[in-house]
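Sequence in, structure out.
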Amino acid sequence: MASTIQVRVDDELKSKSDQLFKDLGTDTTTAIRMFLTQAVANNGFPFEIKRVEHKPYTGISEEILLEKLGRSRVSASQGDYRSADSDIADMRKKYGI
């Protein structure tokens, strides 16, 4: 036997979630079923699913990588660099750690 769950949501939220799940290769009903299954299996909120807007770590060719490394070496040899200690100190100051 199967039960039906009805949930009222704002039209805009429904539209955006439908598009999001479509982009992820599924539909809203299946996404909700997945969520409920995993919530029961994990005895709580199971996971975070999100669409990645950009991929900061996309692959590059070996040729481009070697070119960038060459430019970095030239800059470093001219004193144009920051030490890791300096960057870490800046992050600690910015984030209060």
